[in-house]
Design goal:
Structural class: mainly alpha
Oligomer: single chain
Number of helices: 2
Order of helices and strands: HH
Largest sheet: none
Strand content: under 5%
Shape: elongated
Radius of gyration: 18 Å
Length: 65
């Protein structure tokens, strides 16, 4: 029994990469610095950044439906 090797290619649209880059990196960093400036806490800044970016993603997902 000879097992054949398979290669699977995934294609990712450029618009998807751009959307992830803008939402996660740029917006997340902006939210982090704003929350950190207001609260003067790194931990609260990180939590605010994660919650903010996930909230923005859910709003975009809800608008598309």
């Amino acid at each position: 029994m000879k097992k054949e090797n398979q290669i699977i290619f995934y294609s990712i649209k450029g618009s998807t990469i751009k959307k992830v880059f803008i939402i996660d990196l740029v917006t997340g960093t902006g939210i982090y610095y704003i929350v950190k400036f207001i609260s003067a806490s790194v931990l609260i800044g990180i939590i605010g950044s994660v919650v903010g970016t996930e909230g923005i993603k859910k709003v975009f997902k809800f608008q598309l439906q």
